[in-house]
Amino acid sequence: MATTVLLSMIAVVAACWDWQTRRLPNWLTIGTTSLGVALSALPGGLSIPSALLGGLVGFALGMTAFATGILGAGDGKYLMALGTFFGPVQLLYAILAMAVAGGILAIVEAARQGTLWVTILRAGAGLKQHNQFALLGQRRFAPFFVTQLLGAFNDNVFRNATLVLITALMGLSQAQQSTYTNLAPALFILPFFFFSATAGQLAEKYEKTRIIKAVKLFEIVAMALAAYGFWTHQAGLLLVVLFLMGLHSTVFGPIKYSILPQALKPEELTGGNGLVEMGTSMSILSGMIVGGLVFTVAGSHGTVVAACAIIALAICGNIAARLIPKVDAGDPNLKINWNPLPESLAVLRMARQQKAVRNSILGVSWFWFVGTVLTSQLPAYAVTNLGGQPTLYIFALALFSVGTGVGSLLCEKLSARTVEIGLVPLGAFGMTAFLLDLYFARSGEATVHGLTIGPFLQQPGSIRIVIDLVGIGLFTGIFVVPLFALIQSRTPKAQMSL
Q1: Domains of the chain and CATH, by start
Q2: Which letter, b or e, does each residue of 16-45 get, where b requires 16 or more Cβ atoms within 10 Å of its Cβ?
Q3: What CA–CA distances, in Å, run from 21 to 15, 18, 33, 329, 336?
Q4: Which residues, other chains included, contact 247 with Cβ-Cβ below 8 Å and sequence gap of 6+?
Q5: With CB atoms counted within 10 Å of each terminal CB, which end of the chain scores lower, N or C?
Q6: pLDDT digit string, tens, across residues 122-155
Q7: Does the predicted TM-score (pTM) go above 0.85?
């Protein structure tokens, strides 16, 4: 009862202050957050981990709303403060109730004043002008976004379903399983080494949507072969398809980033790249979950469901690709050098001509290296250091991916819709700080094993680990999106895909 009265008083103060000044001061939001955490330690209150997790959920939702222009920064921090009082689950219910009540009141007030349609039209105009999500409603961006999203999702559904089939359902020996699982990622990455230079030249010489359509048609053929491999349990054929999908990603990669500067305005580059990185990280996460669980959920029909799913996703990607507006070739007179080694060296020399572009390429390469190392270590870390079952690895990956998505979306707001390279050192510092804290949070083996998500969150120090994983992902997004935007804005048009 006392907590309810206290929250009501805080709400009244916040409402009055916001009405008078159109902002919520830090002393109110941070003070309320600290008070919520302190009260959670009292008898009968929330536990401190629940309060901290509620605050983290509120912060993530608030900053996402801030990035999309729905709320101000102070409102986002106020959600964090409320989370320390409610806890994560009750906070979601509270936000839903506030959204419904606020929406109804706004509609009633606008209707009473006779300005309902004017308000709706103004809101739509504001969304179009200042919100990166408005790009999702425009043909120059939306079909491409859906195409790359479906491609990343299908890649991961297929790869993880293949690994599950090989390791759990084909009756292979331990030695055979180890050989196949170690060979699979190498086969997927191999085309990047041999064909990246050629793929870049193709993307510059020919009209880009023509190549995208061809790549997506190739994906349908590859997935048809994979479906046959699932049906007949042929591990060798599935590994061949993994190589083909690596080739698919190699050819699509240069187009993925070179098409944005031609489709978007300069002030939209950061927001567009943020959406692409957010969509990619969420697609990878979703694909890994679906691919890992398809045989468990579908049971004896798992091979049929997996086969149908990957073919359907490839067809949907092909349909989306056909809706992408025509994008002219960057250099139609380019003479293609089919030898990858001298061409790769030529691209490196080209990058050295502009120091900012060269450093950005090095930064992106470092990002992919660190990201690959982190995600490859997560399964062992979840089991050994966190004491979890395999499902805890998915939870850890989800925290990292959600953080990356939120960080990518925040870049447009933080950069004021410009290419702001000053965010890069901020991202690097944040990643370093949270990585160090993650090490100190749990540097040795877990004392308890076999934990699922719920019991893990009840363990001492678990909330700190959750915050660290989300924080690493958050600052990863802030680090890499400005680098992509700078490369795209500073590279000459005829060299964009190279």
Answers
A1: 2-130 (no CATH), 137-348 (1.20.1250.20), 352-498 (no CATH)
A2: eebeeeeebeeebbeebbebbbebbeeeee
A3: 10, 5, 21, 51, 61
A4: 191, 195
A5: N
A6: 555 554 555 677 888 888 888 999 999 999 999 9
A7: no
